[in-house]
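Sample pair:
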Amino acid sequence: MNEVKEGLAVCETCRGSGWLVATGDDGEAVDRCPDCQGESRRSRLLQLAQIPPRYLNRGFELYSIHHDSQEAALKRAVDYVENFPAVERGLLFVGPCGVGKTHLSVAMMRQIIQERMVTARFIDEVELLWQLKYSYGQDSPATEEEVLSPLTSVELLVWDDLGTGRPTAWVKDIIRMIINYRYTHKKQTVITSNWPLRRSSGRSASVETDQTLEERIGRRLFSRIMEMCEVVPIKGPDARTVIHKAGMDFKKQPGPDREHIAAGLIECPRCGKPDVTVLDKSSMKRFRDGSFIDLSCLCEGCATHFLARFFPESVAVEYPAES
């Protein structure tokens, strides 16, 4: 495995020198190390980043927008990549499950690796805690230091699902140690979290309790992260259960010019059957307290054409009369 020191991947072939010495009949010759050049280096840096297979090919072009805040988050992520490494702060994507926080974070990391040739690492908080606990066993292939060292040394760290681990004193100490090191050494960190930053009057739809991120990780660490990262809130429907699942469950696959964003939620207002094809959709509009999309639908059962109004924030559908 390649070593990582001070944010640079140390090549095993040349031990980081960038050169190879070959001895032949005419003496010694020095050549550039092929593993440190171009695509070979990019491939090695992407491998070191440990991007989960599901997100390995997720780029900005595949990010789905179903809410105004998702469009704003995408723009902020692109701006961050374009200005890296001359950026003051990292980003903290906050929002409910399935709005694309991990997708955007990985897309940023992939593009920065490919364009800037820097070391980066993706870590899921629950997986990190599992690796650390396993490292204390006699049969563990890695020590605690070997697990934690890349998280402090890489130039860009993507920390997924901050606050998900059970908030014991040991967990808080581990997180604080990593974040404090990156803070004091001015290393860029991108974080995602499902936990709301502030306590609201009602229960948050994104979590099963009304705890905040500050309560999960502690006030001192929360304060440090607020200084390290710019908060980027994201709202919208859960892509896993509302959008993608609706498409997978939809009986009739739409053509390339059709939209099935809310197919799993729509029923025919005349016969009540869910066998509905979404023929067309409008652009996102503002209405009352939220945004909506008008969907032109056809019931495959009774051939009724009707309009369905989909509200991404509340994941609700209304059936206004067509004008």
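The chain has three domains: 3-36, 49-233, 239-318.
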